[in-house]
Amino acid sequence: MDQLIFLLATGLARGAIFALFALSLVLIWRAARIVNFAQGAMALVATYVAFAVTGLTGSYFAGLGAAILAGLLVGFAVERGVMRFAPAGQPLAGVIIAIGLVMVLQSALGILFGQQYRPMDAPFDESPILIGGVAILSPYDLFVLIVAVVVMSLLGLLFTRTSLGLQLRASAFAPEVSRLLGVRVSRMLTLGWMLSSAVSALAALLLVPTELGLNPHSTDMLFVYAFTVAVVGGLDSPVGALLGGLAVGILITLVTGFLGSTVAPIAVLALLVCVLLVRPGGVFSTGKVRVA
Amino acid sequence: MTSLTGTPRVIAGGVALTVLAIACTFLLDPYRNYQLALVAAYLCATAGLTLLIGLTGQLSLGHAALMAAGGYGYALTANALTDAGVEGLPRFILGLIAGVVAAGVIGLLLGLAAARLHGPYLAGVTLALVIALPAFTSVFVGVFRGDQGVQIAYDGVPEALSALIAVEQWQAWVAILVAGITLTLLTLVRNGKAGLRMRAVRDDEVAARLSGIPAGRVKVHAFLVSALGAGAGGAVLCFVTQSVSPGAYTLAFSLLLVVAVVVGGLGSILGAAIGSALIVLLPWLVQTGTGALSLPGELQQRLSGNLPVLVFGALLIVVTAVWPGGIRGALRGRKASGTAASGTTGHSPSEPISTEPLTTEPLTIQPVSTESER
Predict the structure, then answer these.
(1) Digitized pLDDT (tens) for each residue of chain B, 374 residues in all
(2) Taking Cα atoms as reference points, which of A43, A2, A30 lies closest to residue A216?
(3) From the CA of A24, how many Å to the nearest CA of chain B?
């Protein structure tokens, strides 16, 4: 029972990271109709920047700021430099280009920094707090949860309460009409990529201290899990990403805790297949996105 | 019935190319023959994959897992047969069949899921499959031996030939023979009615359904056929390397297969051959190149592991964005680009639309349409 509570709480914190990363995938999907397979690799670039900045300044929060800034820049560079050249009206072309990008970024990081794992310290204690003798959450998990909630609230406010958010949604929803109404659609697309990339950079930065450390492949599993989350939630739905993230986080932690870490990828695959067989567009998908 | 008159020609072409490739093994030294065997093994898988992506527009990132299924099917059967005292050719053939069947079963399951899914969703499921592969081998460690993998008994040159050829050459022969048969069969599928239906579903699923084509079943068939190819490739790879382990079938390897078919030219089997040769030769070229530069040891190690992947990734981006016909398209000039990558190029309206023939003879079947706007 005690272990169950601990696993649930840890799963919640881990799930918040998945939710954050899945949200970044949803952002790009909504803006550009691309499942960005390069999201993990892009976030990794930002995490390496954060690692370097933290190493230089000694401050975790300087690194955090650097990661977000680097995430924005990477998103900008990827959209303007690569994705813009994807042939339009061809969903596979974007996916294939993203896969190429993963290979380029990961191998470039491997050449620059080598394959070894670099330990990254968490800014807070990682041993769990005891409440009534039951281990619940570590302060770091609490920090992760708070950051996730804050970022999601800010994004929610941005999209629903600001004129910029309205323009972002409009250009994703109806690019032609928006262009006629004076929205700079192309700029909004770039902005969508930057936002999404920054959010995923933050998620990766939050995850790495709880894992083995920083390595050119640190975000591989994060991407796969977050992709599952996004698909389970329905690629179009931020709420789906949030709830799906928490659900998958708890599922993985429970499976890892009770059955061993090797079973977790199988559980995720099973979940993904089951959900897609019942609802090919995800749980929170609304209506038919495309006919063919 | 073009497929009927075309069939003997395809078979004759397949036999001729296979004989030619086997003849070439006499010109190569053992290491080149080993590389040739690898190319032939990869070619079985990439030829299937290029049909899947090129003809039906379904992207699979999990073909390494299907190859692994073929490899494990071969290895487990071969070991069981060795214990039962079966040797030589019967062991190889039964193992090959087991490998192909194993991959076929998984491919069928994936195909059933794929029939309901759109591009990125399918890519995600196949990605998750390849990620879960090491987990499967660890969970069923008694059968699959975990990370260590399954080793098989050494399969030497048959006695009648042992005076004539080295073991690498023999392995190349077997690999080429299997690849020749696989490719001929895949070509027949591609040029026949089934291939036409696949293209129709890819280009406009609604129109295809209205014409009475069962789109779901066509997609499942495409996945199955392509999985059978991957299974044969995995079995041959296991025969050549005498082992199969999850470490050989990583996500990176799966992505390499995608690179091979995209860079070679989507939908083209010659493109798959060029791509397969590229993914075997480029890492070796880079290794040779960096070795000649006399760089410090650690840097050289980093470069030899990562530089080929970097080049492959860059090739994938450039080819998709600016050169969608791939190398195959470039060889054939403009004509091929219209159909090579499922509308990525967007053929100009003035150009006559034609299906891209695999072999040199043109197909006389007219396609339904290649206007592909989803």
Answers:
(1) 444 567 888 888 888 888 888 888 888 888 899 999 999 999 999 999 999 998 888 889 999 999 999 999 999 999 999 898 888 888 999 999 999 999 999 999 888 888 877 777 888 888 889 988 888 888 888 888 888 888 888 777 787 777 788 888 889 999 999 999 999 999 999 988 889 999 988 888 888 888 888 888 999 999 999 999 999 999 999 999 999 999 889 888 999 999 999 988 888 889 999 999 999 998 888 888 887 887 787 788 788 888 999 999 999 999 888 887 788 877 776 544 444 444 433 333 333 334 444 343 333 333 344 334 33
(2) A43
(3) 16
What is the value of pTM for the model shown?
0.84
| ipTM associated with this complex | 0.86
In one letter, which amino acid is A201? A
Q: Do A272 and B262 touch (CB under 8 A)?
A: no
Residues B72/B75/B79/B80 CA torsion (nearest 10 deg): 50
Residues of B in contact with A268 (CB under 8 A): 128, 132
Pick the closest to residue B309 from A234, A18, A203, A217 (CA basis).
A217
Cα–Cα distance measured from residue A64 to residue B130, given in angstroms and rounded to the nearest whole number: 32
Give A14→chain B minimum CA distance, Å: 19
Q: Are A275 and A243 in contact (CB under 8 A)?
A: no
Q: Is B360 helix (H, G, I), strand (E, B) or coil?
A: coil
Q: Residue A7 contacts by C-beta under 8 Å, 6 or more apart in sequence?
A: A250, A253, A254, A257, A258
Question: DSSP state, B213?
Answer: -
CA torsion through residues B354, B357, B362, B364, sign: negative
CA–CA dist A150, B288 (Å, integer): 52
Nearest CA in chain B to A227: B124
Mark yes or no for CB contact A95/B59 under 8 Å.
yes
B118 torsion bin: left (phi>0), alpha (psi -120 to 50), beta (else) = beta
User: DSSP character for B226?
Assistant: H
Residues of chain A with Cβ-Cβ distance to B134 below 8 Å are: 262, 265
Collapsed DSSP state (helix, strand, coil) of residue B19: helix
Residues of B in contact with A262 (CB under 8 A): 134-135, 138-139
Cα separation, B133 vs B124, in Å, equals 14
- From the list A175, A173, A218, A148, the residue with the least C-alpha distance to A29 is A173
Pick B57's closest partner by Cβ from A35, A92, A110.
A92
CA dist A70 → A23, A111, A194, B188 (Å):
18, 20, 10, 51
Q: Which of A93, A111, A291 sits opposite B303 (nearest CB)?
A: A111
Number of other residues whose CB lies within 10 A of the CB of residue A129: 14
Q: Which of A42, A82, A92 to mutate to test the interface with B (most CBs of B within 10 A)?
A: A92
Can you point out the beta strands (E) in chain A? 130-131, 134-135
